[in-house]
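Data card: per-record layout.
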Amino acid sequence: MTTDTFPAIPQTPPPPPPPAAPQKRKGGFAKKAILGLLVLAIIGVFGTIGYVKWTESKIDRISSEELTSLVTATPGSSEPINFLIIATDDRSNLPDDWDASAFGEFTGRRTDVMMLAHMIPGERIQLLSLPRDLKVDIDGYGTNRLNASYVFGGPDLLIKTVQQETGIPVHHFVEIDFGGFGRIVDSLGGVTLDFPLPGRDNKSGFQIEAGTHTLDGEMAVAYARSRHYEVYKDGAWQSTPGGDIARTQRQQDILVALFDQVASPSSAFNLPAFLPTVADNITADEGLSLALMADLGRSALSLGTSNIDRVTLPVKNSKGSDGRAYVVPTEDAAAVLEAFNDGLPFP
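The structure for this 347-residue chain is written out next.
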């Protein structure tokens, strides 16, 4: 990990930045018109059948025989579609120029991120993060944490467990690892986030000054992985509360910022590199065609970040009879799940 972009954080808090000059807000119509023209220009060059097939061929597919728990969505339907999106902690695919020591010495794959996405075409996108320590009943294995279902039975058992515990049908499955997510971020030129205070996580290797920064792929992954986030406040480093739950919120922040980046006219000419990079770094079910992704993408681009609702399943700490530490749903969780299923704003 390089430190040229983000200098070492001083031991005293930095002076507050001068107030930003007021900026005129661009009209939504003008922004969409510019974006539309740029996208049309790109499609004119790259929108050939050969380019589409070449891009789609890069996706690593899981056969339908291996994902029997998926619920089949109605082809061509305007009904909402649910995705289970996971990020694994597989370290075998890290880019050569990343600091591998920051990721620790672990083999195999575990689910580091589990998120349900509810797409209501032309209306709303909902993101529901599921804590990995959620106490669940795994078919054939008994009580355990949610992320254990992936270890025991791969994607299909994870999908089955999520559906049993939430009552939410899963139509499509997408998986990505640390390195793949970083490459996607880099293909867009980074992801821009605001940091009110200097922050760090010595375990994930994340370090940032206060202000607005564009994170490269390696820094974005370090921020998304952070479970021991600290801020520099009142002359000292202070731990922030929340642990895994706070981490899911940071992961959602990154996804929403990436969505905003993709929808920005300034990123339109990155799309020819962005789309193949996404395809080359995800694993998905056979039914998730590039045509479907393109249709959903066009629908999503008609929305703004204000049309993205996001929440982490409300949970509380619990000690199991097996001695393990779990989190279990609170009484508010049922209302959140119902809102997600019905496509209504989260309570």
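Known properties of this structure: The chain has nine helices and 17 strands. Confidence is low (pLDDT under 50) at residues 1-10, 19-26.

See the next section for split statistics.
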